Protein 1
Amino acid sequence: MTKRLGTQTVAFNSPPSIIACASVVGNKEGQGPLGQYFDIVTSDAEYGQKSWEKSESKILNTACNLAIEKSGHKNSDINFSFSGDLLNQCSSSHFAHRDMPIPFVGLYGACSTFALAMSMAAMTIDGDFSTLSTAAASSHFCSAEKQFRFPLEYGSRRTPSSQWTVTGAGCAVLGQHNLPPFVTHITTGKIIDMGIKDANNMGGAMAGSAADTIIAHLNDTGRDSSYYDVILTGDLGIIGRDVCRELLHQDKIDTSNYDDCGCMIFYNTRQDTPSGASGCGCCASTFCSKIFTDLKNSTLNKVLLVATGALLSPLTTMQGESIPCIAHAVAIEN
Amino acid sequence: MTKRLGTQTVAFNSPPSIIACASVVGNKEGQGPLGQYFDIVTSDAEYGQKSWEKSESKILNTACNLAIEKSGHKNSDINFSFSGDLLNQCSSSHFAHRDMPIPFVGLYGACSTFALAMSMAAMTIDGDFSTLSTAAASSHFCSAEKQFRFPLEYGSRRTPSSQWTVTGAGCAVLGQHNLPPFVTHITTGKIIDMGIKDANNMGGAMAGSAADTIIAHLNDTGRDSSYYDVILTGDLGIIGRDVCRELLHQDKIDTSNYDDCGCMIFYNTRQDTPSGASGCGCCASTFCSKIFTDLKNSTLNKVLLVATGALLSPLTTMQGESIPCIAHAVAIEN
């Protein structure tokens, strides 16, 4: 019996439970509005490591181990780990999982990775392929700036539309379990290219894919946007959130319950992040801290998490290409 | 009812059918021993594009469109596309899928990607999450050399242990269908690091993960290696194949039916590929040409495909790290 709804959505027969979550973030993120919700705030960008890449890897490894510990299980109980990051060849995830004896699936969805990992993990549980699966993602401001923009030592000016890459990681443990919250639906995005070529305006570039996936989800499920307590995009930031809202309005979709993780994690004016935040770790650490807490204590009961990814590379930008984008949605309900 | 066998394996209740496959390769691959089996052999490395990256993307896009066409379906019939490649931020896959309106899942498993994509696609079919899913992967000699080693224009000498990255792509269409061959089992690999640091000996580095996954598969299923007509690793090449064989012998596993895609695609002496081939496209194009043909005409009836990936990046090598590796196995049977 097919579990498909409409063109892009899967409705689970036995919705997987999110058993536990853990988040580890950097110092700047810890000083933001969500500071109290994170499990661990590192005291500096290095986290005791010799390179930013190793630091990112350790942040992710710590988040995964902590989430599994909080779920009451051991690493060897996990049947699948789904993880990804922004670094070339996803090295943060691979080195983070090197000492974890868990069947591993590497994902690349840029900043959409956490929702993609949740989607895949949920399918392994509902399909009886796994008893316990983890979904994780990470990013690091310093490793991302070095790889995608300029060495930090240059002290380059940032454009007003550029978003601040979150230093952080989140990991969720999904399983066959009777306790809410549950992953009830996933809507997997198509690649959308609006023709935008400005790699310093990724929020604007990704807004179209976010709106496309939200609209597909609502059409596929027959739900109105007001069904959800909150519809939360991954990291469009201030500019991207406004563009996404405008696109949803054009489709007569009410956006009074719409917000964006990239607008929530920093005090944007005081912390000098005028267009908000981005990075795989943004949505992952926001969900695995405040949003999961709000779901557990029923402050929120119905959440649509829509993580968005800009699928460019520095090379494709240099070759004059526009930015293909994607957004994946996960419905989480008590 | 769980579909898990042992620690790493899933046994499907309703084994997904591989409905169609397509392969597109470069000129050098076309002149190799498998030349007659490929659907399309390009006349040059550019394939009408202005960069090697765009060429790789077009090769992958062509393989995907052709496989879907051969399956008797349209792009819009596909519920999930699983795809990955070696380029930074997996740009070959993203640009290849930009004009394909298919829910897209980006994977990174280095040269293990094709088997990983088959594994994920098979779970979406058996789990009733999808009616039709595609699994694809690509690589390109020129884009890989440029990114991982040296610009081709330097004319650098290659080490005797280095493998030649295949220019090519393969795509398989999986679905709920009654015609063999079927994907009956998947064994998802753990990350194995043997401590090898020589990025020019990736076959040797990956051999341990290949042996680990083969042993896990045989233990989990209770099968003897002789159950299979052929056990085929992804792209260990000559050196890696010999190391893997040695490791399997230490576990008293008979290897008379064992071979490696990286040893099959070129006339290694005549075509100056002394250690054989590598790249995501190696296993993908070999499976989607000769192996699939042999399964369809029952020359082969039981195949264990074990694609292997070296999860290093140029940066982790420069930082003195060893090479984490992974191997994913897919059992395909008539």
Protein 2
Amino acid sequence: MILREADFQQMERFFRRNFFNTLPGPRGLHLIGTKGHRGIENLGLFSSVVHIGATPPHLGFIMRPLTVPRHTYHHLKAQGYFTLNTVHPDILPQAHQASANYALEESEFEATGLTPFYSDHCPAPYVEESSIKIGLSYVEDHYLKSNDTMFVVGKIEEVIIPETVMQDTGHIDHNALHTMVVAGLDTYFDTEENARLPYARAKPKA
Amino acid sequence: MILREADFQQMERFFRRNFFNTLPGPRGLHLIGTKGHRGIENLGLFSSVVHIGATPPHLGFIMRPLTVPRHTYHHLKAQGYFTLNTVHPDILPQAHQASANYALEESEFEATGLTPFYSDHCPAPYVEESSIKIGLSYVEDHYLKSNDTMFVVGKIEEVIIPETVMQDTGHIDHNALHTMVVAGLDTYFDTEENARLPYARAKPKA
């Protein structure tokens, strides 16, 4: 079936939200940890992390409109640091609960039962239970007028991973880690490696 | 193990590329279709598509540095339209081949064997074999100085999907479609729905 703008506008609000959020397919799933200036540890669940570049290493993600308080954004701008933490099935219920809207003075770590973990290098809290922990410093953000959202960029300062999942080629073995992905706001998927394909080259025309 | 900037710098070039590309985990996988002003149909493989908002519906993605010709970027800016098309296992070899670096005058459709498909609404080519086809108009882009990359935003103008996978709630059934994801540049994953969890609410403190 073909749907266009007139169809989009007729969709009931929650139907439309689910439709467009799940439409492009499953995407990466991360807990973002930050710390407020009063010491409150904050945790949020995000599905918009993208790789920007490897040299130097940067990641970016989308912040929803700042028309309501966004603790993650305020903390990472104030402190200058945030952490990205992957999700696997054992911590899915806690990770999902981190998407609830808690008050500023409440720590999502406490509320969800996930454990804050600190290195001596990154002042923002990691999630101890996550297999991959990435510590980033805030670099830049861009206001997207399209939906009144913000694209935030961070530089990778620190990576904490089990040594056993780092392959000789540099690849991280996400199959061994059972790293999860998500479609929309609520539908979580397991991943299973299908193939690693050799670098694709243009074939000369016959 | 803990890795920091000094470790990142010591990594061999390809090792570092694989490491940082796969680090955050599997992410969405899409073929982007565009059409050049001389009529050449272009196809590229991307792993950086993010949901920006549902009302009105916008998606964004990262373009790698424009220091070499990027046909997708030039075409979508010139014509003002592009398409996003999902990947499932049946078309994985062709989709991967679309990541090869073809000359401007060569069509990746022809080179990969994927079939261009046009609606009467979107002037950019869809991939007929893809289960979900999304037609977008170019809206805005942002230069990310971090890695000399570009974040491109498009507005969803048209959606072509099998009616059977649209659930009553608005969710798209990606489990039925076998929509794939990718870690880094070469490691493809199947997805399997684990759970759809109810909207998370903050629990009142005991």
